[in-house]
């Protein structure tokens, strides 16, 4: 059943969270002025799944929440474009699952993975793994931020394999109504870059929100992470200031080296 919904209240948010590209992961506050546009609920085996189309100042997205029989809740967020790609993968996973014979413990890989795919959206990776264990076969969907250090938090849900077609159909209905455009800046954003200096990792990620394109530079160490955000309109000025400092340090080093060389020559001539 498809239901409309009103937006929630206006909780406090911090500026660094506001400028990040896509909806937050579990445990983070909801963005300001978030509005629920539609919702679907699915019963698959002993689990309930809620597919909610939401909208905030950064655009539309889908929140998928899994409620286990013990009430435990897990959730992932998908931009509409990624949701469309996920829908297409569900077709392939469903076909592959249908081609499998009855479960056979002797033929299951050690890690339990039967088929895997990866989706990438800006600074996030989405891992799709069709797995098998003692409880049966299921599709695990995991979301990992590329700006987090190794071992950082990941959000994930597990869809029973028997329900993948039903899940695909529900997702298709929502995408047909709301489209597959994320909103915001139109165009291809450059891929993120990474560099390591001593024990530090630096990540350069290009994102977008309602105010435009921005670059987020993150410094990551063990149990420590900080970031700055630079709006696209100030990139050239930022570059010029940075280049000016580079030139001044280089000129100072050259002069120092030249001065030492002159002293050595004078000393030799004597």
From TrEMBL:
Residues 257-270 have a biased composition (Polar residues). Keywords: DNA-binding. The keyword DNA-binding applies. One of its GO terms (molecular function) is purine-rich negative regulatory element binding. It comes from the Eukaryota. One of its GO terms (cellular component) is nucleus. Residues 251-270 are annotated as: Disordered. Belongs to the PUR DNA-binding protein family. This is Pur-alpha. It comes from Bemisia tabaci (Sweetpotato whitefly).
